[in-house]
Design a protein that fits this description.
Mean pLDDT: 75
Number of strands: 2
Structural class: mainly alpha
Number of domains: 1
Shape: globular
Order of helices and strands: HHHEEHHHH
CATH topology: Cytochrome Bc1 Complex, Chain D, domain 2
Strand content: under 5%
Low-confidence stretches: 1-40
CATH class: Mainly Alpha
Length: 134
Amino acid sequence: MRIAAAVLAVVGAALVVAALATAGGGGEGEPADAGRIQRVDAADRAPRGLEVWAAQGCGSCHGFEPANATGTLAPNLTRSLAGRSEEYIRTSIVAPSAEVAPNYGDMMPPGYAKRIAPADLDALVAFLAEGSSR
């Protein structure tokens, strides 16, 4: 069952990435989806965060109830982020070695500070903060 869930998460992430890559958009010299990704207003941050979650494949490792993710390789974020600030969540993504979750070691891939566009990171942080505060 876990393998099926992991495969489903990876396939979902691939579909989101493919959809974003083929979306039309920006003007000359601007990435095709820059207008949609770079200009996310506050009301759209959390829903956009679910898209970023899927595109980055977060559910392959992490459990997170608002995303229906059941990954068990890394901490369950529904529990481990409860009561945490957006600043803590952001740091956990862009500098994962800063504070390592007990019993998991330093497993999170580095480089998210460069891999995720700032607006996408904002959206992901908002999604995680909102979902872990329920």
